[in-house]
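Question (not urgent): is this output format expected?
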Amino acid sequence: LEARLPGVAPDAAPASVAILGAGIAGASLARAFADLGLRSTVIEADRPGAGASGFAAALVTPRLDAGDRSIAALYASALERAATLYAAAPDAVLSKGVLQLEQAPRDAGRHAKVAAQDVWPEGAMTVLDADACTARLAEPVETGGLLMRDAMAVRPAAVLKAWLAEADRIQATVVRLERGDGRWRLFDAAGVLVMEAEGVVLAAGWGAAALMGEPVLSPVAGQADVVEGVEGGPVAWGGYAVPTGQGLLYGATHDRGVTDPVSSEAASARNLATVAPRLPELATRIAAAGGPTVSRTAVRATTPDRLPLAGALGDGLYVLGGMGSRGFCASPLLAEHVAAMVMGTPSPLGRDLAARVSPARFTA
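Got this back:
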C-alpha cells in the first residue's frame, strides 16, 4: 500500500537534504533520495560504517511477532524490500536463508504461529525439528528452529559503498542545529557552519540522541568477534554466527546503558560462552583456531517499544533510527518512507504502519 500522510508533506520538495550518519540508515536514505531524483549530502564524523554498521557481516532478519499482525507485516515488507535491494548491490549478499533456533520451550509454538501468518510469502517461514536443524547446520543441535528463507547475511561495506556513492559527503561532527528562513544550519563543536539545508534527517544511530532533545533512544553496547578460517551459520538464537566470506562473525554481548564500550578478552569469552551451549562443535572449532582474530564494539540505539523511529520531528527535520539489531532489515524500506515524507511523494507504508514507527507516538 502507498499512502500520502496528512500534515507531513512539505510545501515543495526541498532542493537540499543533509543526512547525519553514514551507516546503514544513512546509506539507505542516500539511495532512497537518489531514487526520487535528489542527490543528498551525507555528513559523517568518521568514516562510513564507523559505528554499528561496520562489522564484517550483518544479519538481515525480521523481528518475529506472533501476536501483533501489524508489526509482523511491517517486518515482512521490510525484509522483502531489503532482500530485493541487497540482491542488486554488487558483492553484497554473503548467504541466503537464516535459521532461528528455539531459545525456550514456548518458542516451538511461537515459531509455528509466525510461520502460519499470512503476511509472509508462501514458504518464507518453515518450522524445522531438531533433526532438520542438525542437518542444515551440519552439527548436532538439541532444539528445533524456524528457517527464514528470505533472510540473509550481507557485507555491510559493499552495501555502504554502493549506496553512499549516490550522495555527496562531508566529514564533520554536527553538534547543533538552528532553524531560520526555511533552512537548517548545521554547526560543529567549534561553532563552524558545516552546511545549510532545507531538510535534515538524523540517521546516526545512538549519535542522533543528543540532537533529538527528547530522551527516546537508549544505548546498547555490544562486542562481536571474528575468527578466520572457520565456517558456520548463518544462525541466530540469543546470539548469532554469521559467515563473513573469510571466516565467522559471532557474538554478541549486550550491555545496556553503555555508551563508550572497549573491546576486551572478557567480552570475547562471553561470546564464546554464548556459542558453546547451542553449537558446541562450532565453539570447539573457534577455540581450536585460536579464538578471535578481530574484536569490535559498537553502540546500537533502541526505543522503549523496540520499534524504529521513522518520521518527522519538526519542520524540515526527520529521523530514521532506533532499530537496534534490525537496522539492515528495516532501514531500506523505512528510508524510502522518510524520503517520501521529505519529498512529498507517496510513502510505501500504509497509514497504520507509518503511525507505528512515527516519533510522534512518544509525544502524543
